[in-house]
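Notes from hallway chat w/ T.B., transcribed later so I don't forget. T.B. wanted the structure written out for a chain they're using in a teaching module, and asked if we could keep both sequence and structure tokens in one place. Agreed to drop them here.
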Amino acid sequence: MERKARFRIGVFLVMIAVLVGLYAARLFKLQEPAASGDGQNVRTYTYESTVQAARGEILDRNGNVLVTNRASYNLEIVSNILLNYADNPNQHLLELVEICEALGVDYVDNLPVSETTPYTYTLEEQSSTQQNYFRLFMAARGWDTDMSPQNLIRELRDAFNIPEDWTETQARQVVGIRYELALRSVDGTGLGNYILAEDVGTDVLAAIMELDTPGLNVQTTTVRVYNTAYAAHILGYLGAMDTQEYESIYAELDYPMDARVGKSGVEQAFEQQLHGVDGRRRTTVDESGEVLNEEWITEPEAGDNVMLTIDIDLQAAAEDALEEIILDLRENGLPSSSSDSQGRGTDAEGGALVAVEVKTGDVLVCASYPTYSLETFYEDYAEVSQDPYNPYYNRALNPSAPGSTFKMVTAIAAIDGAGVGRYREIEDQGRYTYFETYQPECLIYTNTGTTHGIINMMEALEVSCNYYFYEVGRETGITAIDEVARNLGLGEPTGIEIPESIGHRANPETKAELYADNPDLSGWYDADTVAASIGQSENSFTPMQLAVYTSALANGGPRYKATILERIVSSDYEEILVQNEPVLANDYTFSSEAMACVEEGMRLAASGSRGTATAYLGSYDVAVCAKTGTAEHGSGGSANGLFVCYAPADDPQIAIAVFVEKGAQGGNLARAAIAVMDEYFQTAADDQLSGENTVG
């Protein structure tokens, strides 16, 4: 019996020894002994983290740095240190959030429960990514997502051992942080260490670090700096990716799920070039969180730099001019004699201006008003989102009716498609009575009761006579008109690298598609052709398309792909990685007869005795070809105003399109084009003079 007892005890001791050995081996993976100053060993913890690469810079065509980076500090919590080695982790967290609030530091708390009682869920205010994290968290704990928010807070207080004598406010603050820490251990989130606060100032940083919170580290990173207040819609902003973005785009690029990516504009269009390659760093800390050793697993590689075709001085001139014109319209409106029958423009809302190089397709300006600040995008978001004029809406890349700026299409189609000569004379009778039930009027007749009299096609462009184009449009037919519009880029992708709406041309196919649910309205009639001939009906184009179209008119038909990319260079500016070249999108050409008509008609519109833009361009130093437009839109109030031009008339270099919602008429908008042309031609003159001086 005694021998059996000793044998059993021996087996038991061996089992204990094995278990202790296994436990020690597991601990060894998490801890490495490091000699302290007094020869004793201290517990350490080693972890790996992603180090964000510095994002590439964005420059304009002249080398002006528009977007760059500055050094920034984030507060990072290593949960294993805090939760495993701190004597009272919850107390440490409470002290941390209280000092953050006292110092005005916004800390990250994505627990979808209101911060005050009675508790309510705030899931609808969160991104789809955060909503998904919450579902994963609840599933990992076996909790029902239908649980009331009050019960959830109670469950979390128990799970995280929050003291019962804490106030509701204190408990909710710490529960929110504990939730963030717990998310990092939930399968499927793919999250790195918890970033408590981003871009913390050095003074605040020093005060917070004095708390000596176990596991709290300072992470050095970079944040975007904007050297211009202009071009917000083009440059774009950064933000957290949503679940769909991650799964469809960034997962295969090895982006961490909490990476910030371009959400709009150039930041989004050239995300992969600007982003760079994130690094991985291995860090060893002691139980208090003090860093003992750091080493690179892979070093980060800074992103490439993107140089745009945008000229920031022209962009500034355009945005300032749009603002001045629109605010002036709201305050003063237009004289009754120069406005449309619907209104005087005092209800003007927003506008856009796009300028492109005629012979390359380079976009020099892409302005939208009202605009917003990229520097304070997130701080201002709630307020700006409530602005009735919708500053976040990029009007330059969204469509509306072109009005009379479309009439050059009808002129070309009439000459080349129906054999109508440019000297063909028609008498404007005010009301077009060809149809019994549809009798549209010339705008001058609607406004004043007068007509343009007997005019030819070039004069019809000069005075923007609707009656003339009703007649030649009906004779020409929609097929020829639609073909010319397509070739000149209307209702077609421009090629611009940032997202654009395509709009559509008025034709039988478009109408059938738009009214598919109402067969009584889906048919195409001659009356539709008449309306389409002056840029109404279902015609809907963006200011970007109108600028590209105007450049194609200046070229006699050839149309270049619009682009905002000049080149991409390496992060050290030593190597050109991509040099963008002009791309001919369509080599269509119209006849010399049509070209003569368009050129002369647009010259007359800018400087003829009756030109609709003569009051603004008649004495301009550079000869300009232009066309004004007034477009009905069906939403009440003043008509939309449009203006297109190219210059110089005899050697076109720049094409411009201007649009103002409820701007009443287009002639007034020539002022914005003039502001851009002043800057453009003055810069060209200065460059030429500089070159001559250099040669001399």
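Follow-up for T.B.: The radius of gyration is 33 Å. Might be a good example for the class.
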